[in-house]
Amino acid sequence: MTYLQSITLLMLLVGGSIDGLLAKESTSRGGPQIIVPTASCKSLKGMTLPAASLSLPTSGAYVKSAKLVRDHRGEYCKVLGGVRPVDRSAHDIRFEVNLPTEWNHKAVQFGGGVFDGWLGGGTSGLKRAPVSVKSEPEPLARGFATFGGDSGHHKHYILLPDALNVLNASFARNAEERRNFAQDGLKKTRDAAMSIMDRWYGVRPSRMFFLGGSTGGREAFFVLQRWPEDYDGVLGAYAAWDQVELDLQYIRVSQAMYTKGGFLSKSKTRLLARSVMKACDALDGLRDGIIGNIAACHFDPETLRCPPGGSSKHCLTSQQLRTVQTFATEQRSAQPLWNGVQTMPGFNVLAGADLTGSMGLLHHPEHPPNFFLNSFFYLIGDQVLRFFLTGDDHFDALIFDTTTGGKYAADLLPQSQALDASDADLTRFARHGGKFLMLHGTTDTTIPTDASVMYYKMVQEKMTQEEIDRFMRFYLIPGFGHGRGTFNAGFDALGVLDRWLDTGIAPTGLSVVDNNKGSGERARPLCAYPGWPKYRGRGDVNSPNSFECVAD
Ligand SMILES: [Ca+2]
Description:
The chain has helices spanning 3-13, 162-166, 175-201, 215-226, 243-257, 266-280, 318-328, 376-390, 409-419, 427-432, 449-462, 465-471, 493-503, and strands at 24-27, 33-36, 48-49, 61-71, 74-83, 93-100, 106-110, 145-149, 207-213, 233-237, 331-332, 343-344, 435-441, 472-477, 489-490, 511-514, 523-525, 532-535, 547-550. By secondary structure, it is an alpha/beta fold. The strands form 5 sheets. The chain has a 10-stranded mixed beta sheet, with helices on both faces. Strands 15-16-17 form a 3-stranded antiparallel beta sheet, with no helix packed on it. α5 (243-257) packs antiparallel against α7 (318-328) and α5 packs across α8 (376-390). It is globular. The N and C termini lie far apart (58 Å). The structure holds calcium ion. Calcium ion (CA) is lined by residues 281, 284, 286-288, 290-292.
């Protein structure tokens, strides 16, 4: 038994009776400072937190279960609990907090996905950063406490998979559940987790991380905009920060694809994707199925137009070309939304983003959309319009005016104020000493890559480049889509943020590995925007050293 284990055992044996004593700190040989708990895991069960201990209005929080677990992540106390709403007709926010017995004094809060509604606290759902290397240990196994919540709504389907739950937005009928999903659930979960850590270890974390992608990315943007002093390291990956315009873009492309003749079957989306790849793959110096130089890729879909009167699987009709152009172009509202945001850029469908698999199977829309047969864009857009915007369960998304909002025009701005993480002045977070990694794949067909570019440019309008470079890095990753892709990107985002905070030295020379099976673990340099990885013309095509980040 090591010295550390002896201390841990001693603390556990006397746990309950010394609750509240200061945490014992020790240093493992050559490693980081380790803190061991001052109480037994099971002593946390039944713990309650008064409403006054949480900074936003609630009816307090509680721990439902606390169980010591030993698995491949090591030994940790798995705590499940909830935050009670003010409105008793709303659901509790369920949360999961995982407390390692040998704690590195740091904690990671995970964001959710789509409409949330599931626990992503580090053991179920999300276990790592959205872009981590598959073979590296999970944060919990590295000594980080991890936690996350369901943002305050959940439904108990008995026979249906959880995927259906996260695509259901009916929770938004309840104002408190809507606010919890939009922003507030993040802070309430965080406050509860802080108190639980304080109780178990006798001290709060010295460093707080937030990792999220997609909706979790939107949540990451929110925490650094709204509660910048609460977090030290934040990863916001392929973020849905411009949520309202994104939803309008979903409706807009749905309307194009479900206009008679506008649908692209799999063979047509593949034709488009193959043609773009053929035209642009080599622009980065290497034919590898990845378009690295998207700025130089100007594929003209007109080259695929069917001859007059003809139609085959080898060409696109006028109506199909119109759908492609709709995907490739921006959604724009007649009136500016919160923080002046007015657009959602188009998808990179003419520069490598492949729509195959995104359009659903049916050429026609079911009303309401069919989960198994209609496209993701239509499903999400329909849910948002019905439950967030109109309150009309029978609303037909396909006749909604995405430019003006029609009779709901005046409701778009308050929706945007609640849902959009669009404040680009990150001065408070930077002054606090926080570090921010933002990234997006270039082939994302769920959230347009240029949405992240747009946000970065908004930050550039608020802060000088020198200020930005001190606390923020923005990476575009060629071939990476929405959490997967031809190049299924992975790097140790948590470790990069942690080292940046440790040393004060901004990351340079990072590489990103392809997590796909059979990729040979090919790697590329991670290029800060506007850079992209150019093949040097010789050398191992799987080695990042054979590429250089260029910005021409
Ligand atoms: Ca290439």
